[in-house]
Design a protein that fits this description.
Mean pLDDT of chain B: 82
Radius of gyration of chain B: 24 Å
Number of strands of chain B: 0
Mean pLDDT of chain A: 90
Shape of chain A: globular
Structural class of chain A: alpha/beta
Distance between the termini of chain A: 62 Å
Largest sheet of chain A: 7 strands, mixed
Distance between the termini of chain B: 70 Å
CATH class of chain A: Alpha Beta
Largest sheet of chain B: none
CATH topology of chain A: Glutaredoxin
Oligomer: heterodimer
Strand content of chain B: under 5%
Number of domains of chain A: 1
Strand order of the largest sheet of chain A: 2-1-5-4-3-6-7
Number of helices of chain A: 5
Strand content of chain A: 15-25%
Structural class of chain B: mainly alpha
Largest interface: A-B, 26 and 19 residues
Low-confidence stretches of chain B: none
CATH architecture of chain A: 3-Layer(aba) Sandwich
């Protein structure tokens, strides 16, 4: 095969390369990740056995500001029963995240993914998105957004998972 | 002759997708879009300046401010 036909083939092939990731839905195993965190590396596999409330947030996301006090409350209430809230920050600039955290403190595990690789693999559809992951590593529910009237349902899902 | 065909095919396949190769921003990439400057009425002072200039050039006022209208109000 000469070089030009090889290049042609490569260009044609690359047009089909941008395939979307399969959606991570309830029942599917949660994709593994390892990210740098505020207190060392955060590895999802290491949290197996705990109920993980994985939340994708960013400093520019309004509902995230509302959700942090609630997540602090959940971590305080159910941490001893096996819940671990993990907040993955998706800000392109770490300074924005730090500014947000200075205003709205977080009492749970924080990880930082400025490249956006983890949300791509989780195929998240909105900001914020939270996933409730069971002790077996399987996703129990995926929830986009954060509204006042949704708090109860989210808390009920956590208590049900902790049984 | 063959390399001409391949060159044409290469050009065609590169043009084929066109602008559809550009995807809209992913939900976590919308940080800049979320800034207050990016909203329609982000800067009140700038809006007021624009209104004044428009009213001056049109020699007419109104139609801006509260949403609604179109039925004789405002």
């Amino acid at each position: 095969m000469n070089r030009l036909s090889a290049i042609t083939l490569a260009v044609c092939a690359s047009l089909f390369a941008a395939l979307p990731a399969a959606a991570v839905e309830a029942g599917a195993p949660a994709p593994e990740f390892t990210l740098s965190g505020s207190r060392g590396a955060v590895n999802l596999a290491a949290l197996k056995g705990k109920v993980v409330y994985l939340d994708f947030w960013a400093s520019w996301c309004g509902p995230c500001r509302q959700s942090f006090p609630w997540m602090n409350e959940m971590q305080a209430k159910y941490g001893a029963k096996g819940l671990q809230v993990v907040g993955v920050n998706l800000d392109a600039k770490r300074a924005d995240a730090d500014k947000f955290l200075a205003e709205v403190p977080a009492n749970f595990v924080l990880a930082f993914d400025a490249q956006g690789d983890t949300p791509r693999r989780y195929a998240i559809k909105g900001m914020p998105t939270s996933l409730l992951i069971g002790p077996d590593g399987k996703v129990i529910q995926v929830h986009a957004g954060f509204r006042e009237e949704e708090r109860k349902q989210l808390e009920d899902a956590i208590t049900a998972a902790l049984k | 002759m063959h390399h001409r065909i391949f060159a044409a095919l290469l050009l065609l396949s590169a043009c084929l997708a066109g602008c559809s190769v550009f995807q809209p921003p992913k939900p976590w990439e919308k940080g800049l879009l979320a800034k207050p400057e990016m909203t329609l009425g982000g800067d009140a002072l700038e809006q007021r300046f624009d209104q004044h200039i428009l009213n001056s050039k049109e020699a007419a006022a109104g139609g801006s401010g509260v949403g609604g209208g179109g039925c004789g109000c405002n």
